[in-house]
Design brief:
Length: about 170
């Protein structure tokens, strides 16, 4: 999906083996002992979304598991870690300089350390530059997973969508 969201389809999408990701997750990635939540996305007509939520849990569930029907071909799964530990925070330089009390935790990204075999595939956007693609492939095969599957996204002439071709 990142080929859609990055500038002019030059991005990449990284496919993960979710079973291996969950096994690879450190026990204390979160500040509480909870396994990461693996959420299957439900593709639906989001224009007709529910207009009332009975609980905050209903709203959370809807926001994290719903996506427009047009994106169904992505087969997206989302991994959510409740209250991630600050030891995995990726602070910006400005956040790092400020005392902890001034941090807005909603703006701080956390990155779970993953083993190389968690990385299953890479999808290159339609316009990913060849030199960038070669650099990514070299890194992925040498540092992550020598068996990683590689795909090039192409415009589908028959429909308004992209299709993946194995390279």
């Amino acid at each position: 999906m990142w080929s859609h969201y990055c500038y002019n389809h030059k991005g990449v999408c990284i496919g993960l083996d979710m079973d291996k990701v969950v096994k690879s997750a450190p026990q204390m990635f979160g500040t509480i002992f909870l396994e990461p939540l693996v959420l299957d996305v439900q593709y639906q007509d989001i224009i007709e979304r529910p207009n009332a939520y009975h609980t905050a849990k209903d709203l959370f569930s809807y926001q994290w598991t719903s996506k427009a029907k047009e994106w169904e071909y992505e087969q997206e799964v989302r991994l959510v870690v409740p209250r991630p530990s600050s030891m995995y925070a990726a602070f910006t330089e400005e956040q790092f300089k400020n005392p902890k009390e001034e941090w807005d935790w909603r703006e701080i990204h956390h990155y779970m350390p993953l083993k190389g075999d968690c990385f299953e595939s890479i999808y290159f956007g339609v316009n990913t530059e060849q030199t960038e693609k070669e650099r990514i492939i070299k890194y992925a095969r040498e540092k992550l997973n020598p068996q990683i599957k590689l795909y090039q996204m192409r415009v589908d002439d028959e429909a308004f969508r992209l299709k993946a071709e194995r390279i």
